[in-house]
Amino acid sequence: MTALRHDWTREEVLALFDLPFADLMHRAQQAHRANFDANAVQVSTLLSIKTGGCPEDCAYCPQSARYATGLKAEKLLSLDVVLDKARQAKAAGASRFCMGAAWRSPKDKDVAKVAEMVGAVKALGLETCATLGMLQPEQAQALKAAGLDYYNHNLDTAPEFYGDIVKTREYQDRLDTLEHVRRAGLKTCCGGIVGMGETREQRAGLLQTLANLPEHPTSVPINRLVQVAGTPLAGTALLDPFEFVRTVAVARLLMPLSMVRLSAGRAEMNDELQALCFLAGANSIFYGEKLLTTGNPDVEHDQALFRRLGIHAMAVVEESSTVHADIVGSEAAGCAGGGCGGACSDAELAA
Ligand code: SAM
Ligand code: DTB
Ligand code: SF4
Asked: What is the pLDDT of the chain when averaged over all its residues?
């Protein structure tokens, strides 16, 4: 049994970051293999259901109305359009469909419309995830009642660096929404962004805060900043790729039962760097040509990468059971021979 800790000190987390690269990778792989099939990667597809025009000032985000990024603000997509995209995502091999909206916090009438989308997407046999900004407790409950599986709400960076990145809300606001989401019985998807000019200590602070939440997030997206012209963070010095891999490895060690997602920024990474991230314990990706507003690797490229690395996709067939399928196919292959002893099926539920 892997023991889960929620009392990490900053020094302990930094000591992991400071390990020689090979030692850190070895430890991360041990933790990964103890809990998962190391060759299975979960695939989620993202859709921006409400793009741009956001009142918040997140310095990384192309969707803030405050920055001239050339992005056109759009209204909430219709149910038909969302369902069409969800069908396409399923046909391409995704197991989870994540709907993102550029809202600070949704109005109740927005939540009602998203709830309808959630029910319809779930009926296609996909896991559902939404990221809509700050939620009130009743809104989280309404989404849960509609069948939502996951709510994505990132802490984004360390508490002490947050004010440099976002001034229109507090770190505590993020923590409050996460609590409302957990109390509603939703699974949390919560991570952050690295490469925003933060220090190693602040990267450690992000992971420490995530691991010390009352429950480890079921999914932990690690985004590498996608630099978008017009945002205040465009032109930030690029993070050493090995430091990015270290961040993934430390996330794996601190949250051994969570799905660690290699998230935004893959389009700017070569295959070798992505392979190192999988070796460091990443076991989930966003799959499909687009993230929310920026690019992601082509589906064909990801399929080829999976084939070259001998990775297979995890496909969810029902709420409590995850099996593996080929990323290009629809036929579930079952968990036999994965070397996970069944642990991969339960890992998402166990965290
Ligand atoms: N508005 C909601 C919110 O902020 O929670 C949901 C959508 S927001 C775009 C979701 C997440 O996308 C952010 O928390 C951030 O982690 C990530 N994100 C946004 N812009 C990014 C960028 N340029 N590079 C990497 N991640 C980014
Ligand atoms: C997450 O952690 N990363 C995704 C998802 N959750 C919603 C969003 C990435 C956005 C990258 C910039 C864009 O495409 O607009
Ligand atoms: Fe708005 Fe979310 Fe972008 Fe911040 S990250 S500007 S809240 S869409």
From this structure: 90
